[in-house]
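SEQUENCE-TO-STRUCTURE ENTRY
===========================
What this section holds: a protein sequence and its matching fold, both as plain text.
Tokens: labelled as protein backbone structure tokens, with as many entries as the chain has residues.
Question of interest: how does this chain fold, as expressed in backbone structure tokens?
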Amino acid sequence: MRSDPFPHIVLKNALPEALYDELAASFPSAKALGVDTRQNNKRWNYFAYKVTKNGSLPKIWRDFIAYHASQAFYDEIVDLFYEDIAALYPGRFGDKAQMRGMRAGTRKLVDFSSADVLMDAMISGNTPVTTAGSVRTSHVDLGDKLYSGLFYMRPTTTTRSAAT
């Protein structure tokens, strides 16, 4: 875990190889996600609430996204980052037990009447590149989130051979 320039963790090979391979092999098609692939190099996001409602998506993807928008995942984030969060926002969340006691719910499936923290996880990507350019220039994400995480799925030998 690192705190500079902000609290973060980098995990290489974050998933067991078999799970990663199954996710890669069953990555939902653009059509299943309603992505217009005619647009040049455009970022798209398919949010947790949509994943939950789309029974045609592979179960492994529905489970993967649901877990990353769950109470259990929120609790893991608190366990990893509580000290940094408390230092950045003194007095805002109480002690670790109080923060861990906050109820997490999936954004757009529930609201603050039944959850203290709204979570989201999404399947994201870019449409094919037909004209050179950048999806987005260098930027800092908006500060309206307690945390953000990225899980990049880079092509591997297994996923390349599965795609051919």
Notes: The longest helix spans residues 71-88. The two ends are 38 Å apart (CA to CA).
